Amino acid sequence: MVAAAAGDTGKLGVAERLGIESDMVVQELGWDEDVDDDVRAAIEEVIGGDLLDEDSDEVVDVVLLWWRDQDGDLVDTLVDARTPLADNGVIWVLTPKTGRDGHVEPSDLAEAAPTVGLAQTSNLSVSEDWTATRLATPKAAKAKR
User: Fold this and answer.
1) What would the pLDDT profile of 105-132 be if each residue is shown by its tens digit?
2) DSSP secondary-structure letter at 40?
3) Distance CA 49, CA 121 (A)
4) What are the residues whose beta carbons fall under 8 Å from the beta carbon of 52, sequence distance 6 or more?
5) Stretch 27-40: mean pLDDT, rounded?
6) Cα(96)–Cα(129) distance, integer angstroms
């Protein structure tokens, strides 16, 4: 039993490191066959339900955006991803790690984020193949609302 719990802690730790908590509303964009199902499952377990798909019109706490180099215009996609976000919501952009198919240069994210009024606040490894970059509304912009 202890070994199983230790394994679960590692998986659930992904959601915790992403700041995802029980009962949060999480929308997933950019799903494809290459996404990490363990990351998805860990998040669903923590939130106690399914991830919302791109057709949802609910206000969300977190957007998980799976993004690859060939996926199109990142600025346009971030504008769309930002639309359903709650005031204190965040977007996690999950990109393939260096050397993996679809790898996105960090500078692409760094350039796109401020264009849509977001700031890059942290990066972390979420799996063997995927890195996550946290984008949020800068504190100064929140104060002006």
Assistant:
1) 999 999 999 999 999 999 999 999 999 9
2) H
3) 27
4) 25, 26, 27, 28, 58, 60
5) 96
6) 6
pLDDT range class, residue 97, cuts 50, 70, 90:
very high
What is the 3-class SS of 81-114, one letter each residue?
HHCCEEEEEEEEEEEECCCCCCCCCHHHHHHHHH
Domains, the chain, with CATH or none = 2-144 (3.40.50.150)
Please measure the distance between the N-terminal and C-terminal CA atoms of the chain and give it in whole angstroms.
49
Report the pLDDT averaged over residues 67-80.
96
Q: Which residue reads 């193949």 in tokens?
A: 129
Mean pLDDT computed over every residue of the chain: 89
CA distance 51 to 40: 8
Q: Which of 62, 66, 68 is nearest to 43 (CA)?
A: 62
| C-beta separation of 78 from 70 below 8 A | no
Q: What pLDDT is recorded for position 106?
A: 92
Neighbours of 10 (CB within 10 A): 10
